[in-house]
Amino acid sequence: MQTDLTILVVERDKTKAHEIVDALLDGGWGDVTVISSPDAIEGAVKQRDPDIILIDLADPDRDTLEHLSLVTNARNRPVAMFVDHTDEQMTQAAISAGLSAYVVNGLQKDRIKPVLETAIARFRMFAKMQSELDAAKQALSDRKVIDRAKGLLIRARNISEEEAYTLLRKTAMGQGRKVIDVATALVTAAELLQ
To answer: Which residues fall in a coiled-coil region (predicted)?
Structure first.
């Protein structure tokens, strides 16, 4: 478990805020900032740049969830929200907002540590999946550009596909560039000449 995390806690009730801080300290986390108003989240996020955000709201609405998702940058850090009750629409809104944990039946001191650990693990898993998806999309996009460049070379030089790729690769090596960069330059130049 990583204990050097900066944690931002949003809790209106001072007694509950103290309980949360105590639970976090007991869990090994010491860098904790507490704010009492969801309206202050944006400023606190800019100032502290927390690694994880814990929000305790009795009864959030869909607009509040969307706003919190934006100001906490929930897609770039784990955000755990504790609520007293929910319904199917609110649960879906929480998932759409990118929350890493959405815990119903309120915040209980003994649940804080395992919920945060789970939120962190879930966030990391989704971040890894997103990174892999982005890499796959980029590879597919690169492949399409390289195929277009090969097609241009095949038509212009009357060579085979293998020879076209070899020419792209040799040119890239000779210029100290990547094959995709040479292919992109070729496709761009061909578009300009049309």
So the answer is: none
Do 62 and 140 fall into the same domain?
A: no
Does residue 89 lie within any of the structural domains? yes
Residue 43 zone, left/alpha/beta (φ > 0; ψ -120 to 50; rest): alpha
Question: 81-114 pLDDT, tens per residue?
Answer: 888 877 788 888 887 878 888 888 767 788 888 8
Question: CA-CA distance, 95 to 21, in Å (whole number)?
Answer: 26
The encoded tokens of residue 164 equal 């076209």
Whether the Cβ atoms of residue 77 and residue 102 lie closer than 8 Å to each other: no
Q: Which helix (H) or strand (E) holds 33?
A: strand 31-35
pTM: 0.70
Q: Tell me how far apart the alpha carbons of residues 180 and 72 are, in angstroms, rounded to a whole number.
A: 36
Residue that terminates a domain, selected from 107, 124, 150: 107
Contact 41, 10 (CB under 8 A): yes
